[in-house]
Amino acid sequence: MKSRFAPDKKLNRRMLVTSFLLGLLYVGFVAALIALTKSAVLAVVIAGGALFVQYFFSDKIALYAMGGRIVTPEEAPQLHGAIDRLCALADMPKPRIAIADVDLPNAFATGRNPKNAVVCVTTGIMRRLDADELEGVLSHELSHVAHRDVAVMTIASFLGVLAGLITRFGLYSGLGGRRDQNTAVIVLTIVAVSAAVYAVSFLLTRALSRYRELAADRAGAILTGRPSALASALTKISGDIAQIPSRDLRQAEAFNAFFFAPAISGKGVSLSSLFSTHPPLETRLDKLGALSRELGEQV
Hints:
The structure is a single chain. The chain is mainly α. The protein has one domain. It has helices at about 10-35, 40-65, 75-90, 125-130, 130-145, 150-155, 160-170, 185-225, 225-240, 245-250, 280-295; strands at about 70, 95-100, 105-110, 120. Strands 1-2-4-3 form a 4-stranded mixed sheet, with helices on both faces. Helix 3 (about 75-90) packs across helix 5 (about 130-145), helix 8 packs across helix 9 and helix 9 packs antiparallel against helix 11. The chain is globular and about 65 Å long. About 40% of the residues are buried.
């Protein structure tokens, strides 16, 4: 089901290319495991189970880890009202709404598709943003749901599982039964291959994560027609996050790829930006400023 969120063909192409490259990467990884050890079948079964759990229960896992709880319209009327307006404007199913009692000002969307999506906001972000700013953040998160990039990011690191299963059934050449007397060499080779696979997949998913944030900024701002409100929210949140103790930020760092703004991030464009889940704040603000001028927004 299509929504009125501005389609992003570049995002779709990037998600497709990233998925394809990760699939190829894991085909080679599983093939190497099969060639080097008899434990490949067990590894595939474990990875397949992890994929199943991650895909079908990602919303519950994320909410549990963040301490979020689903709230009713009676419990959070303003939040539900904002989501209702945006979903009507975007012509999309309304996701479940959750609140996490955390001072860290942030929000995230999770779920395998629009019908099973959850948008969660923290009490910290609700306390700090005005109505227009919060609506900008919510529109950003809803665009993730509409573009289905939440599901792509959720399963990106597991795409090779299916390819690995196909590879396993197709490779009966006897490589898995070959015995190598030098066990240490085999172990070191497996470790090296695993490290290389992790490094490449890490960079691919981080690059996709950065672009999807820019795409969500643009689509969300176009839907509301107020890029300046989203820019204001970004500026306010980033400034407040900088005042939060590093210990508290590190506890939430695992959610960076799904957060509206990263709990811990570098400043400016540098080598470290290659490892970041989000584009630099300056880049996001510049693009929102350009979009504001393009739309002729009255600030």
